[in-house]
Every structure is written in structure tokens, then in C-alpha cells.
Write a structure and sequence with these properties.
Elements: H1 3-18, H2 24-31, E1 49-50, H3 64-71, E2 77-78, H4 89-98, E3 103-104, E4 111-112, H5 131-140, E5 148-160, E6 166-178, E7 198-208, E8 216-222, E9 230-235, E10 240-243, E11 273-285, E12 287-288, E13 309-310, E14 316-317, E15 322-333, E16 340-348, E17 356-361, E18 366-376, E19 390-399, E20 404-413, H6 426-431
Parallel strand pairs: 12-18
Antiparallel strand pairs: 1-2, 3-4, 5-6, 5-20, 6-7, 7-8, 8-9, 9-10, 11-15, 13-14, 15-16, 16-17, 17-18, 18-19, 19-20
């Protein structure tokens, strides 16, 4: 089936069911849109390498920033076959059980009736003015690391894209937990006590270099999206905790090209953006089977190797891309003080994660390209075999204007035992030095 025909067919299916209640068949399709047929586009076959010489043939399959990088010779992309990524059966079952009681509230950024699973497994409808908001809630409640996960080791490298020099390396220990809406790890009920009704916590600690060692960050996201996150930073050299102002989540984090708001693809509230659903189409995105890649040596004791980097200045993960069904969203910040003009987000339809985000400045010019590579968790380490998530194993934030990049090499384990709830408190932050 040709690309335009396939896109039209997908759109027709989406619109036809948008006004109806979600059936089990709708939910099954939402979580496995590849069950009956894989995307097929002439020329985009496994083994093909997209380069400067042939990139024009694939323009409709690529986001504009990636296309420009390939066209100028800064990047080449190999194509691999498309694989469906089986997600947690518990998460899918919760979606079937609760989806038809979920609805958006009358105010933007509010949701009613949500218990667990994917809030809106319906196919997005361009005639629905709040379709983008629904997809943003799907992202908020998606299973990025399962109910909890730890990234360790986690190396960040700052690189000058003009000279190729690596300027700085940081080592982190990251932790994530969902206090509410749990489905995949014990306890499969809300973690109590939780008087503030925190939905999700993020805790990180810098291990190296010495001048930043023991710097810690804690983010507490409320289940009520109208409440602003509580974010705290512990500076090891000052030995004190300070609360972050809202605007600081869009500052450069520790001198990198990434903002706190960029974590995991997007780390803000639904309410922080005005979301617009643009279209659903077949595109190439960085989805692959991690354990089948050529990885760094030596590997960890459990056989895990890190993704390598190449392209201009070593700014881009050496991973293959595959054809995926993608929802395209635009997010415009609701705060005028934000340095961002808009985000164009490419959401993987099956997993609801964000493998590609283009960030534009206030003038409307492309500013940054935020690419994250995902694998089926069954093709990762043995501990994640049954996690049922699309897990990220590579990432790169490229500042297109400053010609600078930050690369990321994570090793994530989805395991509640590695993420005690007590670790996500201000008290723990003070004692973590």
C-alpha cells in the first residue's frame, strides 16, 4: 500500500470510531496497530541506508530536522524491520476496564474518571478540538519505565558539534516511581500514605564529576494537573535544598542542552501546553531491538552494552529506524515566559511515547532536535523481559542553532525494589549526600 493511501486509510478508521465508546477491539488496535499488517512504503525496506544521496525519496517519512541533517551529510540512518512492541497485559486490561468512564473536564488540563491504563484509547479525530489534549494525557499516564524504574549507569556527554570535541561528561543515578494508577508492579494499588496525592516522582543524583557530585533533583508531580509540580534541587557544594521556580524547568540543566522540561521526551504538565493534534501518518522513528545492535564493549555482567554514537561530531545514536504509525502534535507553552515558541511532538501510536520532538524558538525558527531511541523491553536485559514497556536506550539533544549536542547512554531497570517510595521526599534529598 502506498504511503498516501495508507495515511488516508488510517485517518478514515480514526474518524469513524472517534465518536463511539471504546470497544475491546478499539483497545486491542490501540495497543497493537500492527497485528493485521505492518506499514509498507516502497523503498523503505530493511537494510536500506538513508543518506545524502537518496534522502529525497524518504522526505515524507522523516521529521524536518532529521531530513535536513541527512541532506547536509551530518547523519545517515539504516532502516530495520517494524516490530510490534507487546505492552503490559495488566495495563491493557485496566484500559479495557476503565476507558469508557474517562472524560476531559470542562477546564483545559482536567480529567475525570481516570483510574488506570490508557485514558483515551480512541483514535484521534481532527474534528475534535481537544484531541491533542487527550493524546497528551495518554502520554502523562503511559508506561515509560513501568510503575517504577532506575537508570544506572547513565552517562551524559556534552559535545561541540562544530569541532567534535567532548567538553564534559556527567554520571547520574536516576529513579522514577508512580504513586498512583499502578498496574505492573506490587503494590498494584496506590502507594500510601500520600496525603498530597502525588502521581509521580523523579529523583536523580550526580555521581561525577567532582564539582557537581551529590547534586540532587527531586520532582513531585501531582495527579491533579492544575497543580504546579514541586521541584527541589540539592547543591552538594552548598549542602542545602532549594525549591525551583517554575521558570527554571526551562533553563539549561547543569550546562547541558537539555531542560528539566525535556526529561523522557516531555516532563511537564498537560496544562503547560496548548495541545493541537495535527495528523496521524506513517513515519520512520528510532525503534529497534537493543540486544540485536552492535553495542559497546565491555558489556555489563548481565550482557548489556551501551549504544554507540556517530554522525557529525558523534552527536547521533548508531541505531536503526523503523516504520511506525505516529501521531503528530503541536504544543504551545501557556506561560509567556517560556523560551520555547512551540514543540512539534511525534508520538508513537502504539506506546504513546515521544521518540522525536522538534523545539522552535519564539521567532518560529528550529532550535533543538530531541531524539530518543526505544526498544522492546524483551530485547534489553533479562530483568526487563516481562516489563511490557517501550524502553529508551539512547538519546541525543541537538541544539541546531548553537551547533552543540548532549548525548545520553542509559541502562534502565524496571523494578520496584530499586525505587523505595521514601527516596522521593525532601527528607531523603537532605540525607542523600
Amino acid at each position: 500500500m502506498k504511503l498516501k493511501q495508507l495515511t488516508l486509510a488510517l485517518s478514515a478508521i480514526f474518524v469513524a470510531s472517534a465518536a463511539c465508546a471504546a470497544t475491546d477491539a478499539d483497545v486491542d488496535y490501540s495497543f497493537d496497530p500492527y497485528k493485521n499488517a505492518l506499514p509498507s512504503v516502497p523503498g523503505a525496506v530493511p537494510g536500506t541506508i538513508i543518506s545524502k544521496a537518496n534522502v529525497q525519496k524518504f522526505k515524507d517519512l522523516l521529521d524536518p530536522a532529521t531530513y535536513a541533517l541527512i541532506e547536509q551529510g551530518s547523519l545517515e540512518i539504516p532502516i530495520t524491520e517494524t516490530h510490534s512492541i507487546p505492552l503490559s497485559p495488566n495495563y491493557i486490561a485496566a484500559t479495557k476496564k476503565y476507558a469508557n468512564q474517562v472524560k476531559l473536564g470542562s477546564a483545559v488540563g482536567t480529567i475525570e474518571g481516570y483510574v488506570a491504563g490508557r485514558p483515551f484509547p480512541f483514535k484521534p479525530d481532527k474534528n475534535d478540538p481537544r484531541a491533542g489534549e487527550k493524546l497528551a494525557f495518554n502520554y502523562k499516564y503511559t508506561q515509560i519505565v513501568g510503575d517504577s524504574g532506575r537508570i544506572y549507569p547513565f552517562k551524559w556527554k556534552y559535545k561541540n558539534a562544530a569541532t567534535g570535541n567532548t567538553e564534559r561528561e556527567l554520571d547520574f543515578d536516576f529513579h522514577f516511581i508512580s504513586f498512583k494508577h499502578r498496574t505492573t508492579q506490587e503494590p498494584k494499588s496506590d502507594i500510601e500514605p500520600n496525603p498530597s496525592k502525588i502521581y509521580r516522582g523523579i529523583y536523580l543524583k550526580v555521581l561525577n564529576p567532582p564539582d557537581l557530585k551529590n547534586t540532587q533533583l527531586l520532582i513531585q508531580r501531582y495527579d491533579d494537573d492544575t497543580k504546579v509540580d514541586d521541584s527541589y534541587l540539592y547543591l552538594g557544594f552548598q549542602r542545602r535544598v532549594r525549591r525551583l521556580a517554575t521558570g527554571q524547568t526551562t533553563d539549561s540543566f547543569l550546562g547541558s542542552d537539555i531542560m528539566i522540561e525535556d526529561f523522557e521526551g516531555y516532563n511537564g504538565r498537560v496544562l503547560d501546553m496548548t495541545w493541537k493534534y495535527v495528523e496521524t501518518k506513517v513515519m520512520l522513528m528510532p525503534f529497534y531491538r537493543h540486544s540485536e545492535l552492535k553495542l559497546t564493549e565491555p558489556k555489563d555482567t548481565d550482557g548489556y552494552g551501551q549504544v554507540t554514537f556517530g554522525g557529525k561530531a558523534g552527536c547521533f545514536p548508531n541505531v536503526p529506524w523503523s516504520l511506525r504509525i505516529v501521531h503528530v502534535l503541536e504544543g504551545v507553552p501557556t506561560l509567556q515566559s517560556s523560551p520555547i515558541g512551540k514543540r512539534v511532538v511525534y508520538m508513537d501510536a502504539q506506546s504513546s511515547v515521544f521518540p522525536m520532538t522538534l523545539i522552535y524558538d519564539k521567532k518560529g525558527d528550529l532550535w533543538k532536535r530531541w531524539g530518543i531511541g526505544f526498544t522492546d523491553s524483551a530485547y534489553h536485559v533479562a530483568a526487563n523481559k516481562n516489563a511490557g514497556i517501550a524502553i529508551y536506550t539512547s538519546a541525543s539533544m541537538m541544539d541546531m542553532q548553537a551547533q552543540h549536542c548532549t548525548t545520553f547512554q542509559p541502562r534502565m531497570i524496571s523494578d520496584a525494589a530499586l525505587n523505595p517510595p521514601t527516596n522521593f521526599s525532601v527528607q531523603y534529598l537532605r540525607g542523600g549526600d
